[in-house]
Amino acid sequence: MVNRKLQSVAALESYRAKIAESQKNEYPVIYVCGGTPCLAKGSSAVAEAFKKEIESQGLACKIELRHKVTGCQGFCSKGPVVSFGNDIVYLEVKPEHVPEIIEKTVKNGQVIESLGYKDPQTKKRSASFQGIPFYAHQKGMILKGLREIDPFEIDDYIARGGYASLAKAFSIDPDKIIDMITESGLRGRGGGGFPAGTKWRSCRAIDSEVRYVLCNGDEGDPGAFMDRSIMEGNPHAVIEGMIVGAWAVGAHHGYAYIRDEYPLAVKVMKKAVEDATAMGLLGKNILGTGFDFDIKITRGGGAFVCGESSALMRSIEGKVGEPRAKYIRSVEKGLYDLPTVLNNVETWANVPLIINNGPQWYRETGTEGSPGTKVFSLAGKAVNTGLVEVPMGTTIRELVEKVGGGIRSGRMFKAVQTGGPSGGCIPESLADLPIDFDSLSKAGSMMGSGGIIVMDEATCMVDVAKYFISFLAEESCGKCTPCRDGLPRMKQILTDITEGRGKEGDIELLEELCDVLSYGALCGLGSSAPNPVLSTIKYFREEYEAHIRDRRCPAGVCRNLVTFHIDADACTGCTLCAKQCPQACITGERKKAHVIDQSRCIKCGVCRDVCKFDAVRVE
Amino acid sequence: MGIDIRKIDEIIERYDKSEESLLAILQDFQHTFRYVPEEGMKRVSEVLGVPESKIYGVGTFYKALSLKPVGRHTCKVCTGTACHLKGAHTLTDIIGKELGVEPGGTTKDGRFTLQTVNCVGACALAPVVMVDDEDYYEGSSPQDVLKNLRKYK
């Protein structure tokens, strides 16, 4: 329970010591993942079962045994995840496993290997972070907090060194803080990779009484959930980073702009701001230093363009979120036309680490040009999906094959899509490319905020391009002509190609439109919109040509260009496809070859996805 | 449909009287009334001193706001990249057929509004369906999703 304001840095330290003492446990704390996918897979029931079991055994009163719900523990595809600080992690935990876990692991420190990860090749089980490839190849600088901290408890954060960087920062001259951030090489994690130190310095240099510090939590890229997870799992790290930033640039007001589609993130962040204010870590006279800073939470309105800096600021002001021309810099004229520093959630979460450990320590991880780690949301057709963090410079192949465990159903790895709608597709042939801001840009994609979508051979690259262009056409705010009119035109051409009406010259026309858009659009949404098209044309031109010239979709995705049929020799008659077919148009007797009724088939591909014998052919 | 003006004022009262509060107020209208009522927009205009035309602009710009009432429950089918690759569109078709509405539409009995949304950030569950911004369902088996939807009255 938060009950008192901390009046000084010394008071914070003694409070920390007091909580740390009270949290000392004879038994390990049980961490139950409370991330969205784990919740959907039943982690609440697991947490409830722990609570009941602890109570019924009368353990709570005799010994200090605790369980708590944390932020995302990463391994979403194997949730619900339950872990212990001491390197034990259990996957796909069900309430019925709880008594055994209490008896063996909590009371006796034994590891239950059967609840660990089963290696699909060797069939060996492991229940240790180091023994599970998904975790072993990661470096959890940012995500460590998510796995250990109860996001609703500020004390839990403070006990683990929370707000120490703030206490330290107050003893350092603001200019020196900016030097530290500059030396660390921290680059904006929201996509562009702009050096954070440079941004802060420009803002501080402007002569103004009022400055603002903003947090961009409008994570609109489809396929990205890093910022959501950080806000939901370790909100105080973001807030602490913002306060340090405010101290460095001399701002007294801040805003965190959070997507409306993330109700839990809004709730957690609001609670965190309230608690920090009650403790005297936000508000007037923070820790008795005389420095004032407050944070307001603004909910987004469901417009992708509001992730763009100038549109986001208009939206905070209560206006329509339309961007403005880029030559007006927001460090000079940002929110309410006053100097503003806007960084994204993950960038802010990096700041306390740099202040606590120093810029040199930070530079030990990652590459020369892109120091530190990057959090990615690994999604798509990889075996293991979830929230991952690796040092910058890790190759795409390492990420997909080691952390991601390769491709599902033994299919071929075809490409990865990075950077959301502003990014591009990088083919398997370039998979040894290190992931950092500069390498990805050179390859025609971009880092983006960190969504990595893994694609297999059953992914049509023209369809992917159409998907992103449709997305962007829908989300274009309509202010500038190249974007408003160019994107629907591109969408039309791509639709024609995927529906069998493509013609010679279409590819060239697309390239020309891309050219106009990248030079002519007002903001980043429009000028980066060509990336999904240009990168797929560059690396998968033959797929475009197959659609246009042969009226054929090699990946078997574009409905107008394919037919599905079942190979009678390969079909075992297991009936799985017939059960799952949404049209109920697959017939056949058990243990005999099945047949698809072509007149009713909607070519959804469900049968191919569920078939365990690779008997569904697409032509 | 009669809208309780007191409820409108109650919501406006929660916020500072500045244009900055506009989006938040309209969002609260949306949550309370399941749409942004005209009476509400007029009232906000008076209290905040923002022209009605601007409020209408904001009300129609943001996807989270709707000028027409939505159903008692919203069923959002995620069409983010991971969901797209795993058949979100087929799933939308199947749910739409069950409910008898197109995406964006509301069932005649006002029970459900079906929407497609960009990404709900739960890619590990792809293709994913979110009901009432609270409940998440993995959509790899559409028949199970339909079974779950029937629970909402």
From TrEMBL, chain B:
The lineage of its organism: unclassified sequences, metagenomes, ecological metagenomes. It is an enzyme of class 1 (oxidoreductase). Belongs to the complex I 24 kDa subunit family. Coiled coil: none annotated. It comes from anaerobic digester metagenome. This is Fe-hydrogenase gamma subunit (NADP-reducing hydrogenase subunit HndA). GO terms for molecular function: 2 iron, 2 sulfur cluster binding; metal ion binding; oxidoreductase activity. Its cofactor is [2Fe-2S] cluster. InterPro entries: NADP_DH_HndA-like, NuoE-like, NuoE_dom, NuoE_N, Thioredoxin-like_sf. Keywords: 2Fe-2S, Iron, Iron-sulfur, Metal-binding, Oxidoreductase. NCBIfam families: PRK07539.1-2. PANTHER family: BIFURCATING [FEFE] HYDROGENASE GAMMA SUBUNIT, NADH-QUINONE OXIDOREDUCTASE, E SUBUNIT. Its EC number is 1.6.5.11. CDD domains: TRX_Fd_NuoE.
